[in-house]
Amino acid sequence: MVSCQSKQESEQNDTISTTKEFKFWTWITADSSRTNNSYTEEFAKYKKSGIDAVLINTNANPVLLERLVPLAQEADLEVHAWMFTMNRPGDPIALQHPDWYMVSRSGKSCFDNRPYVDYYQWLSPSHPEARQHIWNLVENLAKVEGVASVHLDYIRYPDVFLPIGLLPKYDLVQNEELPDFDFDYSEVAVEKFKKLHGKDIREAEVPAIDMEWKQFRLNQIKVVVDGAQEIAHKHGKILTAAVFPYPEMADHMVRQRWDKWNIDVVLPMAYNNFYNEETDWIGYVTGQGVKDLKGKNVELHTGLFVPTMSVAELAKAMELAYENGAKGVSFFDGPAITDQQLMAIKKFKENLIQ
User: Fold this and answer.
1) According to CATH, what is the number of the domain 7-96+120-162+210-352?
2) Which of 30, 31, 182, 286 lies 20 to 30 angstroms, CA to CA, from 332?
């Protein structure tokens, strides 16, 4: 393994000041009923094991985030404000506006008819008020002192195609774009597309082969991301996002083309077991994403799903991410990391800096 550059060289070469040369992150979900002491213990455990940053899901609650930031900082952990973006399950403001939600080609609204799972309640990126609501949430989190980034999750459409490893769970065969899982045919999106391109997509015999329709939807997500970055930068924060493994795959599966976004850091979820792939696949998708971002001022940090990994597989996954150009690795999720895995993370980090 090639040794890392010196800290001085790294600081000179880094264009994003909040990132280290090879960073170790973990995602966690906050619970307001937990005590500060319990969080202090958890954060100290992560730091002792080599973790540098925590992505904290507070359900976009800035008050809870303000409480947790100093506790994480005491452990010398960087804090990122993780939020659900287009998928906003149970959002009390959005639920007052049924017209904000995405609609499937079969005419079912995510407001009251959710695809796959009950927590899939997707807002339409084409609806100006829904979009502004998301930006308001971003701004509230970006205002929290000590936060390094706002971290967008579910910044996409519902799954047109599920990862192959998940299909048996839902007893589905997805050899084509099925009407129940093809979004967004909400009135506002259809009318916006009609105004731009002069056609009603609902009248198309095979919408899947209409490239303007596909690109329109990709562009609607890009608008949300680009606006979020402007807000984050205004408050001195960067914008990060959890994304699908690499751009072409994300485009195909969830209408997400993240190599075209204005964003600072992406964390592709290289969850190999979801796709019935071996650990080597993590190296492939990392390398593909790095190539797709070449020439762009965007860092890629590989996301790993630890519950299905042995210690040896985790060590190999980190090595593959590093060797294929990732600037770090993130683990889903913090509480699922075993003591043995934490030891492997610590050992890997120590080897990097020798």
Assistant:
1) 3.20.20.80
2) 182
